[in-house]
Amino acid sequence: MSRTVYVNGDYLPEEEAVVSVFDRGFLMADGVYEVTSVLGGKLIDFPGHSARLTRSLSELDMASPCSDEELLAIHRELVVRNGIEDGLIYMQVTRGNPGDRDFAFPDPKVTRPTLVLFTQSKPGLADSPAAKTGWKVISIEDIRWGRRDIKTTQLLYPSMGKMMAKKAGADDAWLIEDGMVTEGTSNNAYIVTGNRIVTRALSNDILHGITRAAVLRFAAEAQMQVEERSFTIEEAQAADEAFVTSASAFVMPVVEIDGTALGDGKPGPVATRLREIYLEESRKVAV
Ligand code: PLP
After folding, report:
1. Helical H runs in the chain?
2. pTM above threshold 0.70
3. pLDDT tens per residue across span 154-177
4. Closest ligand 1 atom to the C-alpha of 207?
5. Could you give the 3-state DSSP secondary structure of residue 121?
6. Angle at 189 between CA 271 and CA 238, to 5 degrees
């Protein structure tokens, strides 16, 4: 059955959901996005995702397509129309279609932003078998631009990183800049050494993960020690455990880095516990 997709005010069958070839999202990757997970028909961490979208738009001087309340209503409507129990909602805003190609931004009073949302049904999303075995990651150079805190649709390098990982028989790549891990291709990276959770501090070098914020809050509430600082791949390989966080993977244990197994090569207790806490607590406040 065809999905119902939202495009600029209309709910359309996916075959009819189209945007112009002159849209700046298509021509310039001049767009930002959010991915929100759905568990039990409810949105996880929606206020965080909507706040980050507002920030991404503002950093790029891009107009907001509608209010947060309207965005929430569209998310909910798509969940209902597509009968999503577990899955993801992808939302993208671009600088719109000025009717031609030009490096200069169009006048926002004339060219309205494009807003597109669609659902991805993923039954059993929270019971992913990968969470029981953990991910293998490789390290690659981080050659992305300098504003990784803005969630733009320029995803070619992260996508290439995923392919490099796949080719190497791994699940993902951790990106390295100046000898330090920045983050995963589409997730934030952590190591655990002697009961201390270490993750890179927030800056323009990494995306400010919504799952990261929630997980660090839950970790502190559970009296776990958190240290926000950079770490090397060598330190990660010698750590007791490692994991990544994202809206679609939640808390995913990492069991191997560049061919070196961590600990006994199985998901560690801290990552496993944080995954349980995150899923339990975020379901309670899902909307
Ligand atoms: N870092 C990058 C580069 C990402 O693309 C993502 C998610 O797509 C994350 C981190 C995790 O962010 P969040 O927890 O908000 O999904």
Report:
1. 24-28, 46-59, 68-81, 130-133, 156-167, 210-221, 233-237, 269-284
2. yes
3. 999 999 999 999 999 999 999 999
4. 1
5. strand
6. 75
CA–CA gap between residue 50 and residue 212 (Å, rounded): 15
CA-nearest of 135, 110, 101 to 26 is 101
Q: Is the CB of 188 under 6 A from ligand 1?
A: yes
For the annotated catalytic residues, the residue numbers are: 151
Q: How far away, in angstroms, is 158 Cα from ligand 1 center? A: 11
- Give the C-alpha distances (Å, rounded to integers) separating 143 from 88, 155, 174, 232, 257: 28, 12, 12, 17, 20
183 Cβ inside 6 Å of ligand 1: yes
SS3 label, residue 7: strand
pLDDT (tens digit, 9 = 90+) per residue, 87-122?
Answer: 999 999 999 999 999 999 999 999 999 999 999 999
Residue 21 CA to residue 106 CA, distance in Å, equals 15
CA 213 to ligand 1 centroid distance, Å: 11
**275 and 155 in contact (C-beta within 8 Å)?**
no
Say yes or no: CB of residue 44 within 6 Å of ligand 1: no
